[in-house]
Q: What sequence folds into this?
């Protein structure tokens, strides 16, 4: 009798846990359905495009763009270890460009957000510079920097600094002025207000700006690597084009998309981590 009661109690206790797992599994399935449908549709369009190219004798030489040859080329890049050799220089250049964009953009954004006069003085010059294509600075970068690495990092920084700057400034402007009044009443000086109020309050906005900067910098990186350098994703695309190796060219394009997606996912997780709504 006691064994039966114990068995019943264990069954009753296990029901909530199984229900929780069922709920989590259901949520995971519902979350993944739409992305799976979207990617399946994209792969289907890609496959149809490859089939049409292969079926046309006039353009059949470009059949390497199809999914089959591309996936085989991607497998070859992974197994041979060349994938890391190709991506590492690009990731380094992107990282250094974003670092300089943050080093310059965050302090300028804080200054613009805190001071109305600074905002009015810098509005027109900043908007003017922001609208200049980053690649238009390439001749200047080539003259100003002794290496192509430095020039590419400069171009990425020029492109990425504006999203960081403006997002940071917007975050500072959204801080409740009462917080500054309370800090002054408690005897807080400028540095204390900066490090105790401003910087913690704008964390989400800074990473939101960095997320936008990643997209802009990623777009600038590839064409900037077409010239001058002998490494990186842009150089790999240019080299595959020159050798008519279209399967490897498309494989590099897939790698660019995957890496960009993963970097963006990291930025999204940082935005959520620094969101004040999640702490409430």
A:
């Amino acid at each position: 009798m006691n064994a039966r009661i114990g068995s019943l109690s264990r069954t009753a206790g296990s029901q909530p846990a199984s229900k929780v797992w069922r709920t989590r599994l259901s949520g995971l399935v519902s979350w993944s359905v739409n992305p799976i449908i979207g990617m399946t549709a994209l792969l289907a369009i890609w496959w149809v495009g490859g089939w049409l190219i292969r079926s046309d004798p006039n353009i059949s030489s470009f059949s390497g763009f199809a999914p089959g040859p591309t996936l085989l080329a991607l497998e070859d890049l992974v197994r041979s270890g060349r994938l890391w050799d190709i991506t590492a220089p690009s990731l380094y250049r992107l990282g250094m460009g974003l670092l300089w964009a943050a080093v310059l953009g965050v302090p300028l954004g804080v200054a613009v957000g805190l001071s109305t006069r600074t905002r009015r003085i810098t509005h027109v010059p900043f908007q003017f510079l922001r609208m200049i294509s980053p690649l238009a600075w390439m001749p200047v970068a080539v003259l100003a920097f002794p290496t192509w690495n430095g020039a590419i990092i400069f171009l990425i920084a020029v492109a990425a600094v504006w999203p960081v700057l403006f997002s940071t400034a917007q975050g500072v402007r959204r801080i409740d002025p009462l917080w500054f009044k309370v800090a002054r009443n408690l005897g807080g000086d400028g540095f204390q207000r900066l490090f105790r109020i401003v910087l913690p309050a704008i964390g989400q906005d800074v990473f939101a700006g960095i997320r936008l900067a990643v997209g802009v910098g990623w777009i600038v990186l590839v064409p900037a690597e077409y010239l001058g350098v002998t490494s990186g994703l842009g150089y790999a695309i240019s080299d595959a084009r020159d050798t008519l190796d279209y399967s490897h060219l498309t494989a590099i394009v897939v790698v660019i998309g995957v890496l960009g997606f993963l970097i963006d996912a990291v930025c999204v997780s940082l935005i959520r981590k620094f969101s004040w709504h999640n702490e409430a």
Remarks:
- Confidence is low (pLDDT under 50) at residues 1-5, 7-14.
- The chain has two domains: 2-55, 63-279.
- The longest helix spans residues 2-55.
- The two ends are 49 Å apart (CA to CA).
